[in-house]
Amino acid sequence: MNNYSSTQLILEGLVAIGTIAVAILAIWGDWFRDKFAAPKLVLQLRDTKGNLTSQQDGQGVIYYHLIVQNKRSWAVARGVQVMLEGVWRRAADGSFKADTLAAELPLTWAFPQFSPLNPSVSDRKICDFGCLAEKDRLFKPSLYFYPNNFTGFVGANQAVRYSIRVVAENFNSGKAIVVEVSWDGLWSSDMAEMERHLVVKVMDEKLVGRQA
């Protein structure tokens, strides 16, 4: 076989491989992009102790945060939001009963006045989860707005579980996390002490709706 024939065979082989690759991408392109080229967002609780600060009137307020981590920093996630998609309240028998949400509700980003509603995330970004103000005596998830029938607040001797998911324009929604907040009604500016009164923890998803 001469050099011309070998070269011709190689070229024909490359053309055939290219044709097959184009056909595969036409059929499975979305799967390949989602698997290897799309951002990979992971949502987690930043810490369980919270961050104590003061309001303008000097009253204390504790903020709790979530972290949105992009595991593929080279693939920027566009139009990212963290959504509250479910709420369960603890009933008298210790089980958790689902409350009705008319629609998923977006949580605020840290310092929302300086952050767009749907930012792009290449590395990581902090999201507000909720806060407990000393004078209000009520834990509130950090939402941009509260529907009139929203019941997902935590008062003294109450517990609520929140299902939260991160979404983006170019990311298929990841697994939701479930965060439980329970409070015995006591307040302390000592954060180590306060962590025993207001307990914030990530739950095993299998336990949602079951007894504590």
What can you tell me about this protein's structure?
The protein has 212 residues and is an alpha+beta fold. The protein folds into two domains: 1-37; 39-207. The protein is built from two helices and eleven strands. The strands form two sheets. Strands 4, 5, 6, 9, 10 and 11 form a six-stranded antiparallel β-sheet that branches. Strands 1, 2, 3, 7 and 8 form a five-stranded antiparallel β-sheet that branches. A hairpin with a 5-residue loop joins strand 4 (81-90) and strand 5. The chain is elongated and about 85 Å long. The termini are far apart.
Précis, in short:
The chain is of the alpha+beta class and 212 residues long. The protein is 20% helix and 34% strand. It folds into two domains: 1-37; 39-207.
What kind of oligomer do you see? single chain
Count of runs of 4 or more consecutive helical residues: 2
Detail the poorly predicted runs.
Answer: 28-33
Major pleated sheet: 6 strands, antiparallel
Give the percentage of residues in beta strands.
25-35%
On the 0 to 100 scale, the average pLDDT is 85
**End-to-end gap:** 77 Å
Task: Provide the domain count.
Answer: 2
Q: Count all strands and give the number.
A: 11
Percent range for helical residues? Answer: 10-25%
What's the Cα radius of gyration? 24 Å
